[in-house]
Amino acid sequence: MSSHVFFGRAASPDAEGIRIRDFLDRAGHDIEEFLASLLSVSSAADGGVLEAMRYTVLAPGKRIRPAVLLATSEIYAAPRARALPAACAVELVHASSLILDDLPCMDDAQMRRGIRANHQVHGEATAILAAFGLLNLAYGLLAGESTAPERNRLEIARRLSDALGPAGLIGGQALDLKLAASRITLDEMERIHSRKTGSLFIASVSMGALLGGAPPGEERALVSFAKNLGLAYQIVDDLLDVLGDPSRTGKGSGADRRGNFVTLAGIDGARRLAQELTDCALENLAPLGPRAALLRGIARELCGRAG
Length: 307
Description:
Elements: H1 15-38, H2 49-57, H3 64-75, H4 80-101, E1 111-112, E2 115-116, H5 118-122, H6 124-144, H7 150-164, H8 169-178, H9 186-196, H10 198-212, H11 216-243, H12 246-249, H13 261-284, H14 293-304
Antiparallel strand pairs: 1-2
Helix pairs in contact: 1-3, 1-4, 1-14, 2-6, 3-4, 3-10, 4-6, 4-10, 7-10, 8-9, 10-11, 11-13, 11-14, 13-14
């Protein structure tokens, strides 16, 4: 049985919704198979670190970031075989960030993706090693990918690196840890999550555009789309943290101890902000016309999760 879980609600009844759901299901199946094959061999000699890597990577997840990369590459008719390694590298990096984010010194989370957090099962030391192992595997995957020209492989790796650095995910997490929930402003929250969440969405469209040979103007439009989508996605996640069923969201309700968009803007305010950001994301895709239908559909699905 496939472990990918996208949005936790029934598929939209219209033709577009059915098409989007079909794409996500097919993409999820391909991503699951690729990830499972990467992590298929373990032994007592590795000290249990590979099993800890498998534990988080192969747990049920939405796989939305790699799906966005695949949808972007399809705009330019890039073969799935060329885009899949890069998409899975993004998912490996995302899984690594989840392990680190859940540690007692970070968010001290107990649950992730419907199961106990990695450090709760494998211990903090092995969880940290697993997170670094996943990063290592991601960059090794990009370096060894033979279906893309060498120049593209180097640039793709650089874009993923940029998404992780001080101006990206790592910087966003550092800001999140530094700012106290009692003093944080909406602007600061947006700055944190434009890095912590948005950076991998930006990397996904940027890497997909590079794999497909997108013109610079269209790549800029895709990056603007991803910036808005990443923030909308985080706000909807915050809404689900308050309103959602933990059996569906995969984590305890109210899990963010440092506050979130709902604590700052309220439920109705957060819903409005998520919708505004989604509308902006969709507007950014105008230069691509009907070719961006998959990305538009994914954005609408994401915003619709919180009702």
